[in-house]
Amino acid sequence: VVTRVDVYDSVVIGAGQAGLSASYHLDRLGIRHVVLDAEPRPGGAWQHRWDSLTMRDVHGVADLPDGPAPGRSTDRANRAVPHWFGTYETQHGLPVLRPVRVRTVTAGGDLLEVRSDAGTWLTRTLVNATGTWTRPFVPHYPGAETFGGEQLHTHDYPGPGHFRGRRVLVVGGGASAVQFLGELGPITDTLWVTRREPVWRDDFDENSGREAVAQVLDRVTAGLPPASVVSVTGLALRPQEQAAAQLGVYDRRRPMFSRIEPGGVRWDDGARGPGQPAFEPVDSILWATGFRPAVTHLAPLHLRSEHGGIPLLPGTADVQTAVTAARDPRVQLVGYGPSASTIGGNRAGRAAALAVRRQVTRETVRPA
Ligand code: FAD
């Protein structure tokens, strides 16, 4: 374990889309920094996506700054994106160190101390780009521990073949649930439950995208936990989901159950809906219930508001996204809230680098 005695102008935590974009822009601004990434290899969360997700199935991967993304193809996303990130890191000479998992970030005087299993870094500013993949979220339902079948989360989706011959309950109203049902529906018996009635939209365009991001932006500047993007964009079926749709897979949807039992799930009388059975036997429960921001290592900085989210300062006129932590402007959060997409991560990377420059310059010109 090493303690770095030199002080960096910035430390970026995470080398996914958002972290790489931030590092690229920091480099262009001549800001001395290092990128610490927990993975043994390049690729951010993409290296963990399931094998059946191809570059044709992804919703769209935006270019990195000065680094065009791989196109639509039948290549596996968990190979194509990591390969692209790896090449990008090398071509641009980005200072990525791995594997380095950051455990805590603390504030001591003017400096931030970034502690990891591989050493401690001192820095004037921090760009947090840790994504969400390491924090899968499963809501609590009574009886979950008594279930005799298997429970899996999106994080561990093993591909459709694994579920052949099983009755699968898919939980969640987001894009992953829609995608899983598209793959599973044609080969096995599925049932879908969601907390809210899904909102289907096939008129989603750039303008609606901007509106959706603006809604999430409002939430984080108010200090609320970021909403899932789908809760503001709505869902759409793509050609690869049509076979399942024709089989009525998306129509066999029910509201959330009340509890889990050893052989399946049960609805209380008020919850089950007219004419619906009170109990459904299932072999597998697939929780497509999303992820939470991976920010527990920032807890010692006390960045959260009483509403549970990390409030961000509104963006400036030239950078219309929010990245700066309201409670400590030395800390930038990229890939968080309004920037939790590949396109948002890029934009946030630039905004973070500019904010870091403002912080570092301010410090340098401060009278002794
Ligand atoms: P990540 O890619 O998750 O990178 C974060 C990095 O930080 C990882 O390498 C991680 O190991 C590292 N890290 C985490 N904690 C620590 C720590 N404590 N110390 C050190 N390193 C750490 N968005 C799109 O725009 N298009 C899509 O098609 C799309 N598909 C998606 C599919 C799924 C199943 C999911 C879950 C999300 C999808 N998204 C998509 C959203 C996606 O999360 C973002 O677009 C983007 O990949 C996130 O990039 P990121 O840089 O914020 O995080």
Automatic annotation (TrEMBL):
Organism in which the protein naturally occurs: Myceligenerans xiligouense
Keyword line: Oxidoreductase
SUPFAM superfamilies xrefs: FAD/NAD(P)-binding domain
Domain of life: Bacteria
Pfam families: Pyr_redox_3
Example GO molecular function: flavin adenine dinucleotide binding
Record bears the keyword Oxidoreductase: yes
Listed Gene3D superfamilies: FAD/NAD(P)-binding domain
The protein, known as: Cation diffusion facilitator CzcD-associated flavoprotein CzcO
